[in-house]
Amino acid sequence: MSTAQLINSIREKSNATDPCTRSNYFQFKVDDTELTLSVSFDRKIISGSVKYHLVNTGNADEVILDTRYLLIKDVKVNSLKTEYILSEPIPIYGSALHVPLPTTIDHSSLIVEIDFETTDKCTAIQFFQGDTGPYVFSQCQAIHARSLFPCFDTPAVKSKYTFTGKSPLKVTMSGRPQETSEPNTYVFSQPIPIPSYLVSITSGNLHKAPIGPRSDVYSEEPSLAACKWEFEKDMENFLQIAESLVFDYEWERFDSLVLPSSFPYGGMEIPNMTQLTPTLICGDRTQTKVMAHELAHSWSGNLVTNCSWEHFWLNEGWTVYLERRIIGALAKQEYKAQGKSEKEAAEYGEKVRHFNMLSGWNDLKETCNTFNPKFTKLVCDLTNQDPDDTFSRIPYEKGSFFLFYLERRLGGLEEFDPFIKYYFRKFRYQSLNSSQFVETLYEFYEPLGKKNVLDSIDWEKQFFQPGLPEEPHLDTTLADEVYAYGNKWVEFVNNSNNNETADVPFTEADIATFQGGQDMLLIDYLVEKFRKCKVSPHLIRKLPDIYPRYATSKNGEIKSRWNELLITNGKYTPEDQLVQDFAEWIGHTGRMKYARPGYKLLYNGVSKEFAVDTFKKYRDFYHPICRTMIEKDLNLA
Ligand code: BES
Ligand code: ZN
């Protein structure tokens, strides 16, 4: 098969257009978009108007936009008030807004203006009482932007934007703040073309503090100092390392916003205003890699974008790959600062990267064992699927391991690094699919005499086979310390035969030298091993006294694993304090990474009724996306 045939065959195996939009996006080019959003805290809605400057490249006689649970008030084309049709809604994708083009005008370039309002069914925004006043924020990825404003809701379409936010409280949106003298009005410009899912608005009692020469962090006043402390050590370092891996940061400033606790994700890469969960503010700087991840999206995702959610690995797989490169490079820097040689430091940096990859590999194994195999492919068919339902660690981990595999096969870091720069430069400001990725590999490596390496890769298997890929060879130095200790536990459990009076030969001093990630790995390892070796609930209930550091940790990564270990094995009941504390924690933690497995743990490990009752008690606190997912998880939908 020739290279051209190969590229074709990969392309033909996924949808030619984005199946998750009902718009006719492929017939237009969007030159510019003006979006005004006005927040009403009283009515708990956002009203707005959007003005699209379109070039009709596909000879279309109508413009079709996505909407979902939106009220459309008025439509104009080239200033002429126009009749429109809102199609019957379909559950996942919403109603298509059909705007026929008036026959009296020239159809080649158009200005389409729409006035609209969100409704109480809007899935993109959440209104609530913040710590110091009313608060609203949006979350549009993957296909919720259509619930905030009528749009071509596909990552295949990009546009420059001017945003105007109106609210009695401070507003942030996805761009650079501009001067304005109008009261209660905030204007932002986004000169780099971005897709609809990166459009965002937040309004509340927001304050800011500097965390780097080109970075501020925003939050409500009471947590501002803690937010600043958590990130100020790493922020500019992350930026400079990322710039040396890819190329200069193009967005001018990298600011971030720590949201209230109902924020459903760890982070979201809103251009110029990354959103972060408050669970990162744990006072030990162990969760800053989420910041590195969102920063890496400035290149992978925001400059270079997947053309549909079927190719989501191009966003998240690349981002995890870069995130781990950044974390490895930072470890190298810190080791060097301790006086180690360049070579030693580089080796240590790689060990740290590999340690992080190992935990990713464990996540990938777990997901492949438990998730619908249809969605464990690197490239999925999303026809008639809700991207929220197919979301998992797969695009993240399978994607980043695919890149790691290529890095190795193509000759290691030295050979792969120039490709990173080439790829991101080639596709910046664009959206692409997986076949264009392969095409670019050939374009870059063929002249370097590596066509044979690429020819020997089974692309079909890499992209379309479900389940685990070939196991990567990882440096396990840092993990081995953890495994050796964990194995002592396994041995003890096997030998003590669950004798309740046996002395437990473990104390917290054993793990005094463990660093952040090693603690998590240990608990994960014990979860996995105890599943197989039937440990007595009596012994499990001694654990909090043996490891008070874990039992009292405020860090969500520890808390979630620790409770999994105890609740799965300790035969706890709803009356136990441990269960009540855990229930209360997930009742106040909207980050889905913790809340969803938390409810499943209560459901399977304590009782179905208790899980459902707990959820009902806290239901209103959760973001609509999170609420829906938990309802599905608990079979309440
Ligand atoms: N873009 C994602 C969050 C997202 C994905 C929102 C899909 C909606 C739909 C963000 O960059 C992300 O991956 N966040 C992770 C952070 C982690 C991998 C460091 C998260 O939320 O856990
Ligand atoms: Zn991400």
TrEMBL record:
How the cofactor is bound: the record states: Binds 1 zinc ion per subunit.
Q: Where is the Peptidase M1 leukotriene A4 hydrolase/aminopeptidase C-terminal domain?
A: 477-634
Q: Which catalytic reaction applies to this protein? A: an epoxide + H2O = an ethanediol
Q: Does the keyword Nucleus apply?
A: yes
Q: What class of enzyme is it?
A: hydrolase
- Sites where the protein binds Zn(2+): H293, H297, E316
Q: Could you say which EC number(s) this protein's record lists?
A: 3.3.2.10, 3.4.11.-
Q: Where does a peptide bind?
A: Q139, C140, Q141, P264, Y265, G266, G267, M268, E269, R591, M592, K593
Its keywords, alphabetically, are: Cytoplasm, Hydrolase, Metal-binding, Metalloprotease, Nucleus, Protease, Zinc
Q: One cellular component GO annotation, for this chain's record?
A: nucleus
User: Recorded GO terms, molecular function?
Assistant: aminopeptidase activity; epoxide hydrolase activity; metallopeptidase activity; zinc ion binding
Where mainly found? cytoplasm
Q: Any stretches that span the bilayer, and where are they?
A: none
Protein family membership? Belongs to the peptidase M1 family.
According to UniProt, the name of this protein is Leukotriene A(4) hydrolase
Q: Which organism is it from?
A: Candida oxycetoniae
